[in-house]
């Protein structure tokens, strides 16, 4: 965990990485300034305020401690108390001083961590480095003792080591390494931190970093690694397209309330498939004939680009041209467009030859495929593919193909009991008890305490309300699920005019099929309360050939025919689109036409599914369609959550997300903001924007939040008929997704500042609560007695509504874990809620109930979801970014290939149509 900046501010100016304006001073965001409306604090309940050592409440931080987010002031008490297992065990904080050294390796290029690790291992053979220290592969070396530099603060060492591509007949290269003392770390500060007696400081974070590196040292020397995960060969699966999946183990030391924990979990790594490069290349392009890897034999440009992206950065063992010479390890940079027989160069004697002849002359063996494309290194060396072999154990840090993504999900899926058993095996693979580095630092990981038993609670599910005409208008979910049998949508929409456009051939989608689908669709709508006035719609067959221009014309023509049929100056309410298998390009074109160009609702269905669909299928389609048209599917019953529908405190709920490009792609990031406009917090409107690549702060938050707040007040006045003064929100709940812990302070500080500025400009003053919702953590919860009634659902997971705010939570700050959804496959992952700013003074029970309720209003499901619906919506809106670009461009990245800089991406990003800015078009 990288150190954040200083946390010394209390009431002065804001600090990077910290809550400004006195964030640590109290529960709210102003350190005690201003009126404190809202629910009172709960004290003296559930043991939360029992006195502990030193007079401070048990498990709660001391009053003087400064925090990044809101300081924990109580624990939740609502719900049934239970115990669950978690994948962690206890660790002890060492007592000896840790010495931090800066490492500077003189090199004209950045050396890979696997090589720098070898250098430092060689360096530590020097006697002054005994016992050995822990190195992070970059610039940090932590030692369990001080290094004797003879009175100096630093020392230069010359370390000889052969690189992978170094010829064996040359002397090893000598690397100059400067070791400089940086700091002395007293682990006592970490102990005080977990005890709640000291705030997070650079010393605490650096100490924690040092210990995490110590536990990584041994496995980093044995296994391929990626940050904190290590991958063994015990479980591996080839999944096509040149990739292999491997099972690995994640490990991390985490501070918790009153103790240091060791968190261990399973992880999945994407690897390049090892073996002959030519075989792997054929797998990537989907061909079996090596001769096809040639432009003269029809290699498609798209396949060439895909293969070049695949091989860039891949390390291969090359059979040398000279007979008897040992193989050389090199890294591929690009591919040639010509074959080895057509690439000529001058040799040292001045004569010209081609690559194929060169390899034949020196090795005595002709190339089998001299006409196919070749690999090329960054230094310009050309290598025939058939002489290259991909070496094993290489992680692929690239965008994952969709088919591989599905395989990865399947490979990663393990039922709770199986996952726990596999995690136990990880202790043997990581071998902390055999690690000299762990022993040298005096660190002890108590494996006997795995898995840990911690206290949890099961929250009651919120009652949900459906519409008039339902046999029973209310329903209470069970295990995170319910059904719509004999239920009507809360506010169903009416479809007056519609058109069905079929992008499938008439011999595959016959007239009788067409009639059946239209009839079934209408019956499905009526079953949930939606009225379809047009019983005999226009059905138009269209072709997906010709790309977006033709698809656009086909859809426009269908709309014109609807206008002419009904003799009204208004197009259809919606287009029902029937897609063939593999119709992703058609889907993107349809969505761009509907959402960006015309503002017409489109509902896409796969032909193979809708032709044999039952009533349940059509009910699920209607959940999406009704929301897109402006209707409401389900609402929390009155009184379930006063935080959502308290008339004395009108509340707007926002969900925000930022998505970044996949590794290896230099494309923009996209941000999204959704906000509720109704009084029950179920109807959301979206905004989205493009911003600089991998920027964490939402760049266009000011504009997007202002538009949503205006829309909220307009809706309250125009639709809910409230007076102007009552239309102003008094509470703003902001759920933020996609923020790593190291950016909590910075994101909260800047984005809350923007929200306050916008509210001030609009002359409103809602109390703001800012919560980060995280899913990328590695804590999992397991029922202690899965066979016992009420402790596990049918999948073997903990019951939906399981909340944990003790045992593993932050030593100082207001956070909790909520497993809000029922299990289906594998082991469920809870969401981690970190309350970074809270003017509303939400007590834990109220906030946890509110979050749990929001997980039940996701409009296109009759199951509770794993994160609050507004966060889910923001995530979907971000994922839809590619439809904002002209589909005439068929870029594999979903963006315009001619965009060579950020400004071009901005200019190419088309805004959402105005008619869709007030609808949930993304459902």
UniProtKB/TrEMBL annotation:
Residues 574-886 form the Piwi domain. One of its GO terms (molecular function) is RNA binding. Residues 10-36, 44-57 have a biased composition (Gly residues). Residues 1-60 are annotated as: Disordered. Gene3D superfamilies: 3.40.50.2300, paz domain, Ribonuclease H-like superfamily/Ribonuclease H. Residues 276-392 form the PAZ domain. SUPFAM superfamilies: PAZ domain, Ribonuclease H-like. It comes from the Eukaryota. This is Argonaute-like protein. The lineage of its organism: Eukaryota, Fungi, Dikarya, Basidiomycota, Agaricomycotina.
């Amino acid at each position: 965990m990288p150190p954040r900046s200083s946390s010394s501010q209390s009431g002065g100016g804001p600090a990077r990485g910290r809550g400004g304006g006195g964030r640590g001073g109290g529960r709210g965001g102003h350190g005690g300034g201003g009126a404190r409306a809202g629910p009172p604090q709960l004290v003296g309940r559930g043991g939360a305020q029992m006195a502990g050592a030193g007079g401070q409440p048990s498990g709660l931080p001391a009053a003087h401690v400064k925090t990044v987010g809101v300081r924990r002031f109580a624990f939740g008490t609502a719900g049934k108390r239970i115990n669950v297992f978690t994948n962690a065990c206890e660790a002890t904080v060492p007592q000896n001083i840790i010495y931090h050294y800066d490492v500077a390796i003189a090199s004209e290029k950045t050396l890979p961590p696997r090589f720098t690790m070898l250098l430092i291992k060689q360096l530590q053979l020097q006697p002054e480095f005994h016992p050995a220290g822990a190195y992070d592969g970059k610039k940090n070396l932590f030692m369990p003792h001080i290094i004797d530099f003879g009175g100096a603060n630093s020392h230069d060492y010359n370390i000889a080591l052969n690189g992978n591509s170094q010829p064996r007949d040359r002397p090893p290269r000598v690397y100059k390494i400067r070791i400089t003392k940086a700091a002395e770390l007293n682990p006592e500060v970490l102990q005080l931190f977990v005890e709640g007696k000291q705030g997070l400081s650079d010393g605490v974070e650096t100490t924690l970093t040092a210990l995490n590196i110590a536990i990584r040292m041994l496995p980093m020397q044995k296994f391929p690694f990626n940050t904190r995960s290590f991958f063994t060969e015990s479980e591996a699966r080839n999944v096509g397209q040149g990739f292999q999946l491997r099972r690995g183990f994640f490990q991390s030391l985490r501070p918790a309330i009153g103790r240091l924990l060791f968190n261990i979990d399973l992880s999945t790594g994407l690897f390049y498939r090892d073996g002959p490069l030519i075989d792997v290349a054929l797998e990537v392009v989907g061909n079996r004939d090596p001769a096809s890897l040639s432009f003269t034999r029809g290699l498609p440009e798209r396949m060439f680009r895909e293969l070049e992206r695949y091989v860039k950065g891949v390390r291969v063992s090359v059979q040398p041209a000279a007979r008897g010479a040992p193989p050389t390890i090199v890294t591929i940079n690009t591919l040639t467009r010509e074959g080895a027989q057509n690439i000529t160069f001058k040799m040292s004697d001045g004569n010209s030859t081609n690559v194929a002849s060169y390899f034949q002359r020196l090795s005595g063996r002709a190339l089998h495929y001299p006409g196919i494309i070749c690999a090329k290194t960054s230094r310009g060396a050309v290598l025939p593919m058939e002489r290259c072999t991909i070496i094993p154990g290489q992680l692929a840090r690239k965008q994952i193909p969709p088919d591989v993504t599905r395989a990865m999900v399947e490979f990663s899926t393990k039922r709770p009991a199986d996952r726990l058993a596999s995690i136990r095996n990880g202790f043997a693979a990581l071998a902390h008890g055999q690690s000299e580095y762990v022993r040298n630092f005096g660190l002890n990981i108590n494996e006997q305490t795995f898995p840990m038993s911690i206290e949890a609670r099961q929250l009651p599910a919120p009652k949900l309300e459906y519409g008039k005409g339902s046999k029973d208008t209310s329903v209470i979910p069970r295990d995170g699920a319910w059904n719509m049998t004999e239920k009507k949508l809360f506010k169903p929409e009416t479809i007056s005019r519609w058109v069905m456009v079929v992008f499938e051939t008439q011999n595959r989608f016959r007239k009788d099929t067409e009639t059946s689908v239209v009839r079934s669709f209408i019956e499905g709508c009526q079953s949930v309360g939606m009225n379809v006035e047009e019983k005999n719609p226009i059905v138009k067959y269209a072709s997906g050939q010709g790309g977006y221009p033709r698809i656009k014309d086909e859809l426009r023509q269908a709309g014109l025919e609807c206008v002419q049929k009904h003799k009204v100056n208004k197009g259809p309410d919606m287009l029902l689109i029937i897609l063939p298998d593999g119709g992703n390009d058609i889907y993107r074109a349809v969505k761009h036409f509907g959402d960006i160009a015309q503002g017409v609702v489109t509902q896409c269905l796969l032909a193979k599914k809708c032709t044999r669909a039952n009533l349940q299928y059509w009910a699920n389609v209607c959940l999406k369609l009704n929301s897109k048209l402006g209707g409401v599917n389900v609402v929390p019953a009155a009184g379930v959550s006063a935080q959502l529908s308290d008339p004395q405190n009108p509340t707007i709920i926002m969900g925000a997300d930022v998505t970044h490009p996949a590794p290896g792609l230099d494309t923009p990031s996209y941000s999204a903001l959704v906000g509720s406009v109704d009084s029950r917090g179920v109807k959301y409107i979206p905004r989205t924007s493009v911003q600089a690549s991998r920027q964490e702060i939402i760049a266009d938050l000011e504009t997007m939040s202002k538009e949503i707040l205006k829309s909220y007040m307009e809706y309250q006045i125009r639709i809910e008929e409230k007076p102007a003064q009552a239309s102003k929100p008094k509470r703003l709940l902001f759920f933020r997704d996609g923020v790593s812990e190291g950016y909590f302070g910075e994101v909260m500080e800047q984005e809350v500042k923007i929200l306050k500025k916008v509210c001030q400009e609009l002359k409103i003053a809602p109390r703001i609560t800012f919560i980060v919702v995280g899913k990328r953590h590695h804590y999992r919860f397991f029922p202690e007695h899965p066979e016992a009634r009420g402790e596990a659902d049918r999948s073997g997971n903990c019951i939906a509504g399981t909340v944990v705010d003790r045992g593993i939570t932050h030593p100082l700050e207001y956070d909790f874990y909520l497993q809000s959804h029922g299990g289906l496959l594998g082991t469920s992952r809870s969401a981690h809620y970190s309350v970074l700013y809270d003017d509303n003074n939400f007590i834990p029970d109220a906030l946890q109930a509110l979050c749990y309720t929001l997980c039940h209003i996701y409009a296109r499901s009759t199951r509770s979801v794993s994160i609050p619906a507004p966060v889910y919506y923001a995530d979907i809106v971000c994922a839809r970014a590619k439809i904002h670009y002209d589909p005439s461009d068929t870029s594999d990245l979903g963006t315009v290939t001619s965009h060579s800089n950020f400004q071009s991406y901005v200019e190419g990003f088309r805004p959402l149509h105005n008619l869709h800015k007030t609808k949930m078009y993304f459902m």
